[in-house]
Amino acid sequence: MARIKVIHGPNLNLLGKREPDIYGTVSLDRINARLEEIAAELGLKLEIVQFNAEGQIIDAIQEAAVSCQGILINPAAYTHYSIAIRDAIAASAIPTVEVHLSNIYAREEFRHVSVTASVCAGQISGFGPRSYELGLRALADIIKDK
Predict the structure, then answer these.
(1) Number of compact structural domains in the chain
(2) How does pLDDT run across 64-77, given as a tens digit for each residue?
(3) In terms of residue numbers, what domain contains 29?
(4) What residues are labeled active site?
(5) Which of 19, 76, 93, 146 is within CB 3.0–4.6 Å of 9 for a Cys-Cys bond?
(6) The pTM is what?
(7) Residue-by-residue DSSP string for the chain
(8) Binding residues
(9) Tell me, what CATH number does 100's domain have?
C-alpha cells in the first residue's frame, strides 16, 4: 500500500472561516475526510499534517522522502517565495503534486509565481477543495506508473 504525505501549509487550519469568498466554506477537516475516502478507494495510506511554520513543512517533506511514495502539498503563501521548501521537495526525489484552492494566476500579481511548481510533477489550482481530490488522483496515477 503506497503512503502519501499530505502537507497543508500556513493558515489552512482556518479554512471555512478565512476569506470564504476566496477559499470557500469547506473546513480543512472536511477536505481531509474526503481525501481519506479517496485514498481508501485507491488503496493508499495518507499521513496528513498542517503546519504554519516553514521549518515544520521542510521537516515533513524530509520525513516523507524516507517513509512515503509521494507528497501532496499546498504550500499556501510559501508557494511564492520559499526556496527552502522548493529545495526540500527537489531533494525528496519522490513525486510531489502541488495544489491550491484558488486560481493563483487569477489573483494578485505576486501570487502568479510558484517557486515550488518547477520541482513538482504537476500543479492543480482553482478548483476549491476538488484541487486536492484531483491532485491525489494524479499522484496515485504517477506512483502506479512508476
Answers:
(1) 1
(2) 999 999 999 999 99
(3) 2-145
(4) 23, 100
(5) 76
(6) 0.95
(7) -EEEEEEE-TTGGGTTTS-HHHH-S--HHHHHHHHHHHHHHHTEEEEEEE-SSHHHHHHHHHHHHHH-SEEEEE-GGGGGT-HHHHHHHHHH-S-EEEEESS-GGGS-GGGG--SSGGGSSEEEESSTTHHHHHHHHHHHHHHHH-
(8) 74, 80, 87, 101-102, 111
(9) 3.40.50.9100
